[in-house]
Amino acid sequence: MSGLPTEPYKGVRDFYPHEWATLEAIFGIVRATLAKYGYEEYNASPLERAELYESKGNEEIVNEQTYTFTDRGDRKVTLRPEMTPTLARMVAAKRRELPFPLRWFSIPNLFRYERPQRGRLREHYQINVDLLGVKELKADGEIVVVAHTILSAFGAMNDDFVIRVNSRTLLDAACKTCGLSAEAAKAYLRLLDKKAKMPAQEFKLAQTAITAEDPLARIEANDPGIREEKEKLMGLIIAWKARGMTNVVFDPTIVRGFDYYTGVIFEVFDTNSENPRALLGGGRYDDLVSLFGGDPVPAVGFGMGDVTLVDFLTTHDLLPEVTTGPEIYVGTPKESDLTHANLLADAMRGQGLRVFVNITSKSLGEQIKDADRRGIRYFAAVGEDERASGTLRVKRLQTGEERVLALSDVVHFVRS
Amino acid sequence: MSGLPTEPYKGVRDFYPHEWATLEAIFGIVRATLAKYGYEEYNASPLERAELYESKGNEEIVNEQTYTFTDRGDRKVTLRPEMTPTLARMVAAKRRELPFPLRWFSIPNLFRYERPQRGRLREHYQINVDLLGVKELKADGEIVVVAHTILSAFGAMNDDFVIRVNSRTLLDAACKTCGLSAEAAKAYLRLLDKKAKMPAQEFKLAQTAITAEDPLARIEANDPGIREEKEKLMGLIIAWKARGMTNVVFDPTIVRGFDYYTGVIFEVFDTNSENPRALLGGGRYDDLVSLFGGDPVPAVGFGMGDVTLVDFLTTHDLLPEVTTGPEIYVGTPKESDLTHANLLADAMRGQGLRVFVNITSKSLGEQIKDADRRGIRYFAAVGEDERASGTLRVKRLQTGEERVLALSDVVHFVRS
Question: ipTM above 0.90?
Answer without folding.
Answer: yes
